[in-house]
Amino acid sequence: MKHALNAVSVGWRRIFVLPATVVLTVAAIAQTAPAPDKPHLEGNIDLSLNGEDIENKIWANAKPYLDYPLPELEAAVPELAGLTPANSQENLDSLLDRMGEKCLDLMQRIPNVISHGEMRLQTARAQPQRQKFEYLLLSHQTPNGVILEEYRRDKHGRDVGADGQFSQGFASDWVRLYPSNRAESRFRYLGQQQVDKHNTLVVAFTQIPDLVKVPAQCLFSGTWYSLLLQGVVWIDSRDFRIIRMREDLLAPRPDIYLQRLTVKIRFDEVQISKAAISVWLPQEVDVEWEFNGNLFQQRHLYSDYRLYAVRSRILAPAP
Q1: 112 partner at 20 to 30 Å CA-CA among 105, 179, 276, 282?
Q2: pTM for the whole thing?
């Protein structure tokens, strides 16, 4: 997956790829199982409409938790336990500006890195699955800005994950908070909280349906569907780095039986010794979704980040 960034507009794409076994199950349900009862749809959404009309109605009827009273918001996002509430929104814009500057700084400095990775999948109806890989994040300077490319490879150097085993895009998920992307979301300053030994400033966000240029996508039965997101960001009050993110589906997608989706990302400072720099990269990512009444959990673990360099040699032509 690529994330292209430039001074005018910053774009990225988050992709949620359900594990291959789940995708196949979804296809089987869609093709051979008795038709399930039509789910209850807020706003009387008619599933006989075309896909674009369904999406418009789903997002138009969304009720972002950003607008909840604080007690209800804390119930929806348990990670907010211990929050000291904000008294006003007076400093929100300057906070977003400082955070955006740090995001830009990170994007400009991030080198090509590789790390050990592991994916664990847990479902109620199958044995847990585990897959180890080498996670590769490549940064390319182009005339239009920076492009990030993400790969996963096995011990033999072969790409893995192309069969639908992975969700993608966690390393640069904070790109949505670039100043040029901020118009796609609404924000609310929630207050301060102690998280992972950091004093943090906590901001909630929700995407604005009509303004999102490149939404996240989900693969369902061989077709890609758009997902709009809401979430919470924990920002280090000392240097305005993002140390945690939580994202949730803005509204259920009953047309593909996706009731819920939650992503939790923990970032940490990584020292890249050979490059003599430190950058903030994902350490743990938990993805949990509820499909057709079944719960699925996927965990991504990253460790031992290090500088990646391509080695090549010139071979003499055969005589």
Answers
A1: 179
A2: 0.80
